[in-house]
Amino acid sequence: MGSTCSLPSPHAAFFSVSFSTFSSCHPETILCDTGEFNCHDRATCIPKVWLCDGEPDCPDNSDETDQSCAQEMVIRCPLNHIQCVGTKKCIHFNKLCNGARDCEDGYDEGVHCRELLSACHELRCRYGCVMTRNGTFCFCADGFEVGEDGTSCRDHDECAMYGACSQTCTNTYGSYRCSCTQGYILQPDRISCKAKQEPGDSRPVLLIGGSDRIVITHLNGTGLKPLRSLGLNATLALDFQHKQESVCWVLSTESSGQLRCAETRNLRGFTREQEIRTQQSLQHVEQMAIDWLTGNFYFVDRVGDKIFVCERGGDTCVTILQLDLRNPKVFRISENVAKLERCNMDGTNRTRLVDSKIEQPTAVALDVVKKLVYWADAYLDYIDVVDYTGRNRHTIIHGSQVSITFYCFISPMGSSA
């Protein structure tokens, strides 16, 4: 396998592990969502509940400075909206001074609505004028934002905001359009994408690997079926080969390690199961991932502090990373001072993506369409996301909703998607 693993094809750079070739870019300052605090580095967003909690969460510690903690957290409302004072409620500019109380304390109405009329006329706004108790300013129609002169209007790029579209976002003049990549269809909400189900395709299923068995279930949790009993209590690493429609798993104990693969062309069990003998020992392997293009196996050795790759037949193996990997808890993440990293699939160009507000990373997943990296932290109880350069960080879920229990993944089981 020497030539296969030492110089992997660039087309194999985007399989579902972080050892991938990421494109470089330099995004502009990001905007945080409602309920988030924009760190002073202008590259990280954190939940506002983390602000002034006595523990630095921003890379630059700006969430714990006297300046940040001395003033009330400001909610970032959507475009053309304003926050009702003392609440988390945002109302549209059109509801200001319209004769109806939309904020509980009546902040949006009052004598200023009459007194500031002349001031609004003097601004000569291109679209409309906002009258608040603090003064007046111009605003634009939905889909537009005020220009640098404070009166004109220009297009607002909705695609720059995280979560605008499930997959592909195209900014248009005054609006935007979501679309899906090949193999997916746009849903009625015009935002979400769902994998196509062609005639004859099996429904997607969830494979779950435990220490003593491998089971399968539908995505809604029904129809739970055991596929194979493992017969011993060992560390299990599991992955799915899409082209061959087969499952491969590693059982690792203190005395031995074994790699096995079996076909799963139906949901009743495994067929044509076989052992793949590898050149390097799998005794201390804790995680495994399969490159879906080349079929190469990538392994994490928790004792040898290394990541190595073996060609599909197992005859040739090459160590690609062996530095600063003390007890890696999960593939694609190395833990010393906890951090999230990436590198090329031959181990070169090792780059750190995240090294703050991360304690016990336990899972990583890639969005190869939007070029995003998601991970879970079992200690801090959150799921976060950054782009391929480590910027534009957002928190997806935080708190008791985060629970990491099984090693599992979704298998199309024959679906074209």
Automatic annotation (TrEMBL):
**Gene3D superfamilies per UniProt:** Laminin, Low-density Lipoprotein Receptor, TolB, C-terminal domain
**Record has Secreted as a keyword:** no
Q: Which GO terms describe its molecular function?
A: calcium ion binding; low-density lipoprotein particle receptor activity
Matches recorded under Pfam families: FXa_inhibition (PF14670), Ldl_recept_a (PF00057)
Would I find Metal-binding among this entry's keywords?
Answer: no
Q: Which PROSITE patterns match?
A: ASX_HYDROXYL, EGF_CA, LDLRA_1, LDLRA_2
A Gene Ontology biological process annotation? endocytosis
Q: Which domain of life is it from?
A: Eukaryota
All copies of the EGF-like domain together span 119-154, 158-194
Q: Where in the cell is it found?
A: Membrane
Q: Which residues form the EGF-like calcium-binding domain?
A: 155-194
**Main localization of the protein?**
membrane
- Gene Ontology terms, cellular component aspect? plasma membrane; receptor complex
Record membrane topology: Single-pass type I membrane protein
UniProt keywords, alphabetically:
Calcium, Disulfide bond, EGF-like domain, Endocytosis, Glycoprotein, Membrane, Receptor, Repeat, Transmembrane, Transmembrane helix
Q: Which InterPro entries match?
A: 6-blade_b-propeller_TolB-like, EGF, EGF-like_Ca-bd_dom, EGF-type_Asp/Asn_hydroxyl_site, EGF_Ca-bd_CS, LDL_receptor-like_sf, LDLR-related, LDLR_class-A_CS
Q: What's the name of the protein?
A: Low density lipoprotein receptor-related protein 1Bb
Q: What is the lineage of its organism?
A: Eukaryota, Metazoa, Chordata, Craniata, Vertebrata
